[in-house]
Amino acid sequence: MKDQAGPVVPVRARGAYRQSALVLGTAQLGGAYGIANRTGVPDDNAAVRMLTAAQELGVTHVDTARAYGDSERRLGAALPGLDLAVITKIGPGAPVRESLAASRQALGLTAPLTVLLHRAADAEAGWSDLRRCLETGEADRVGVSVQSPDELRRVLTLPDLGYVQLPCNILDKRWLAVFTNIPDDLVVTVRSAYLQGLLAAGREVAWPHLPDAERDRVVATLDRLAVEFGREDRTDLCLAYLLSLPWVTSLVVGAETEEQLRRNADLISRKPLTDAEREQALAELPELPVELLDPSRWNA
Known about the structure:
This protein is of the alpha/beta class. 37% of the residues lie in helices and 16% in strands. An eight-stranded parallel barrel has the order 3-4-5-6-7-8-9-10, surrounded by four helices. Residues 32-37 have low confidence and may be disordered.
C-alpha cells in the first residue's frame, strides 16, 4: 500500500503572507498541458485525490486562471472540505471586476483570493481596479504574471504590488540582474521550472530553436552537476537551483497524476543548492537563445 504520509512541503513567509514552497498548478485540469504530457487531463476523481494529497503534503495554495479552460470550475467542485487557498488570474484583456466575479462563481469561493493580471500588458488599464479588490476584501494580494525581465522591471513600480509570477529555470540567467533590490514582502513564484517539460524529458524530445547536439551537451552538463552535487537526478537539480535563489518564494508545478505530485513534493522538500553550487552551475551552463528560454516564441 502506498505511503500516504509523504514529505511535508516547507512554508515560506513574505511579510504576513505565507505560501508553501510548492504551489500546485492546475492548468492540467483544464487541458492537456505541457510538452511532456503523456496522460492527458485527470478525471474528476483523480483531481480530488490529487488535491487531497496536496493538502496532506503541506501545500497551501493552488494556481489557476480564467484562461485555463475548465480548471476553475473543476477546482470549485473538488475544493469543498479542503483547506487550500487559491491564486487565480484575470482573463487576458478582460475587465477585472467581470473576470473576478466569473472566477468566484466557478470556484464557489467567498474568501479572499490572490488575484493576478495574466498579462503585464493589462496593467495600465486594469491595475486600479485590481487594487480596489484589496480594499473590498476580495483579494488578499494582487500582482502580475510576467513573461520577460523587461515586463518585470515595468510592473515592479506598480503601487501595492504584492505578488509576481514568472517563468524561470536553471538555464535562464536573464532574471538575475533584475532581482538586486526588491521589497522583502514581495512574493515571487516561479513557473515552468522544467521549461515546459523539456528539462525533465532531456534527449527524448526536440528542443525548440536548439540543435540536438547542443541540447545533448546541455543535458550532459546538467546530469554531471546533479551527480557532483549529490542530487537524485536532473529534475532534483532543477528545483534545488530555483529554491536556492534568495528572491524565490515558491515554485508552481503542475501534475497530471498524484504520483507526479508526490514526486514534486518530495524534491521540493529537500535542501536547496548551496550558494557555491548555484554559482558553479551558472558558470558551467551556457548562455542559450531567448527563443528557447521563452516558450511564447516556440512557434515563431
